[in-house]
Amino acid sequence: MARILITGSVDGLGLEAARQLVHRGHTVYLHARNQQRAMDAKSACPGAAGVLTADLSSVAETQKLCHDVNAIGNFDAVILNAGLMQGGFRKTPDTGAPALVSVNLISPYVMSCLLRPPKRLIFISSHLHRQANMASMDDMFWFKRGETRYQDYPAYCDSKLHVMLLANAVARRFKNTSVTSVHPGWVATKLGGQGAPDKLEDGVETYVMLAEGDYDEQNLSGAYFEPKRKIGQPIPAARDEDLQEKVVQACEEVTGLRLSA
């Protein structure tokens, strides 16, 4: 049986994946933004081994989360499921980036730098990475465009390309970790909205497969998965190593943390 961490597991895909993995006999740790949400998560998934708390829009709290996770021991799988799609600019005090970008991109970078590498590391992207503006590569954190030009939807699409580029950069570095990225589907969660057309169980099925390692871990590190355990094809830019390194460099500059070779 595996030891698994799922960030953003109070509700939606993260919670349902946790429930299924607990039911299958795994040791699952949940993550919540604060103590109230942690209590909600524990009630919703009573078989979980524990709930860790951190506001992932904060670099300092994300660093503490990494410390807490490493103190537990080695993990077989980590699913970086936490994400934001709405909420406005909400400038974060430690980096100045919008909260959406902090949670969707900066926190996965910090965790990639500081967590003891698990056997399997899963990043959550989206099919909406196809709508990313390539010009955003020069302003990933909205420092140049600023709050007046900020819009949630374009920022979300951009962040999902950037996190896939990060995942592929990590996959090239971590030789003993199988690194994947996932489009979980457009499902009726708090993030996806009630009008979403896809099925929650189809996305969770892929989560469970990747968490358990029920795929060719060695040869599919760097792969992009879709619902129903399918391998997808991202846009060609996602495979561009120069763009991957551009994301790594930008995240290093804003966090002061270096991604190990």
TrEMBL record:
It comes from the Eukaryota. SUPFAM superfamilies: NAD(P)-binding Rossmann-fold domains. The keyword Cell membrane does not apply. It comes from Aspergillus welwitschiae. GO terms for molecular function: oxidoreductase activity. Pfam families: adh_short. Keywords: NADP, Oxidoreductase. This is Short chain dehydrogenase. Belongs to the short-chain dehydrogenases/reductases (SDR) family.
